Amino acid sequence: MSRARILLTNAALGPLDYRVPAGMAAPPGTIVIAPLGPRQLTGVVWEAEHMPSAGEVGDNRLRNLIARHDAPPLRPELRRLIEWTADYYLAPPAAVLRMALPSASALDGGRTVLEYRLTGAVPDRLSAQRERALARLAGRQGLVRELAAHAEVSDAVIRGLIKAGALGPVEVALDAPYPAPDPDHAPPLLSPVQADAAGRLAAAVNARAFQPVLLDGVTGSGKTEVYFEAIAAALRAGRQALVLLPEIALTEPFLKRFAARFGVMPVAWHSDLRQSERRRAWRAIAEGQAQVVVGARSALFLPYADLGVIIVDEAHETSFKQEEGVAYHARDVAVMRGRFEAIPVILASATPAIETRHQVELGRYQELRLPGRHGGAELPAITAIDLIAQPPPRGSWLAPPLVAALGETLARGEQALLFLNRRGYAPLTLCRSCGHRFQCPNCTAWLVEHRLVHRLQCHHCGLVAQPPAICPECKAEDSLVACGPGVERIADEVAALFPDAPRAIVTSDTLWSPARAAEFVRRMEAGEIAVVIGTQLVTKGYHFPDLTLVGVVDADLGLAGGDLRAAERTFQQIAQVAGRAGRGAKPGQVFIQTHDPAAPVIQALVSGDADSFYAAETEARRLAGAPPFGRMAAIIVSSEQANAAVETARMIGRAAPDDGQIHVFGPAPAPLAMLRGRHRHRLLVHAPRSADLQGMIRSWLGGLNWPGSVRVAVDVDPYSF
Ligand code: ADP
Ligand code: ZN
After folding, report:
1. Which end of the chain has fewer surrounding CB within 10 Å, N or C?
2. What is the spatial distance between Cα 34 and Cα 97, in angstroms, rounded to a whole number?
3. CATH number of 192-319+330-370, picked from 3.40.630.30, 3.90.25.10, 3.40.50.300, 3.40.830.10
4. pLDDT digits (tens, 9 = 90+) for 657-707
């Protein structure tokens, strides 16, 4: 008989053994259905002819595999990636496997699904709820469940609308092929520097060997145009290409640029896809029919049939680091996938991470530089505004030089962008008479006032409350005041200064889907917006030729945290947002408001001397033994019971191996000491590069027990340290 070891998509378990029934072919990688207790789970054959060792379940007690899914097997390269990811990030292999497989229903079954969309018929008598649902469903299509979620109504309301004829069925073919991108559709005329970089990337693709490349070019230098040529090379070789983007909001502009270059849209993969789109894309990717995929970090684990190149755009972005579930860094996993697949991995960035630059210095990554903006566009002039010398008037946040520049920009009919990384109206609300501050009951965080929707919100757990009319503490009336600015408050200030200038607030509250992002881009391009007030969401990727002024409202915000990455992150963020200014024929200018214009990071931005700033930051890391010079992991211990959390954290700290290699800092309250009702303590583990940090943590934690109410999560290569 044949005995196979199966990795099930169930987080709690490692691989389990099953009997392969006679007549079933189940080579490694085959996607199968296996029984577990009363359930039937999807799994993947990890070892085909497993030889049991003593102590393992005997052959006669094995259960039979139920069936094979009708899908291509997972290739060995992807299986290795899953194993590596689980191993490196100390995550259950099954949790990693789940990122490679869609839901079981997507693996089989029919080649069509039935979705619903508006028919145009409007029933005579509509309840208010149904009417609201209809308004929200304009242009939407999906399963009953998806439409209900989108309209924020129950499934029954949607079914009622179907019965009433307002929604009608549409049959969606799941095996409809995607149109093929044409590498010769509209090739650009590249500058000599661009052409040289593009030629090297194409050569790397054709070499079919592992090669990480840092494509390091200032904002507007044409990095996208250049890496498009790597995609073209993959297409000509008949292979697939993957582009990872940091935000799904950037997908839409990317799709348009891609279509202009290659004639058709690439295949998008992100959390906002409908189930039918997800099923269709997954299969086309696995069968090699989908040739170019653009997606969020989760697209990294898809079962590409024949991947030829991976591109990580804006590779320095923090959103590539996943914090929940499997805590992995998509940039680093992309490089590993490139190694296993033996293909180049291109990291594109104007402000690469210190870790990435270090790999270049070590000679492990190739570097291609694009030193100037394309077409003679100049980099913007950057000026610091000293908020102590030139403070904004009382109760406002924009200093006189920035207001003057804003006025001139608007008078010329150009566009401006004000950047403040704070959603809502004000980050803190307090009572003037008793000092009461509105804090989230579940998190160590203030409730943020969102005046547009008249709510107080926690940005960490999503708690929403009505702003009360009286202070809940002292019952004073009209005593609540908003402290500090958020983007909504800046928008109010702009409205008061320039009432005729059309404004747009761009945050994750307003730009939560690719469609909304597309609408924003359209309005910007049509000149329907004069001033954008936005968070980090507007700092990257966008290209608006008439945008000539960028104002950074509070450059000190990111430096306050005080972790070792604060200056680097501030530099990246401000350099990126500054990069939005003056990308076309008109020159751009940037004003940075700060209380500390002498800070090295502000000086580096103003002088444009990134290299010496990086050198100093890298040296600071070296002295601290921090990454990339040492290894780090954070152990986060959390519980709803404060005592259990702190005691477990201390117990783990006491049990730390004393091998002279690792150092443990803490436990101390985690950066968010309470999150979603759980008390959190953190131990930071620090080891030299040569140490087997994961192995040490595995045996250290593996020998310990803690109460069931306590969760212990390990974050390897934590973002903040
Ligand atoms: P980056 O990604 O480095 O910020 P982009 O690739 O977005 O730069 O290029 C900036 C702008 O310049 C885009 O509008 C792009 O289409 C244009 N551009 C860059 N290189 C060329 C070229 N060789 N020919 C035509 N347009 C170009
Ligand atoms: Zn909260």
Report:
1. N
2. 15
3. 3.40.50.300
4. 888 888 999 899 988 899 999 999 999 999 999 899 999 999 999 989 999
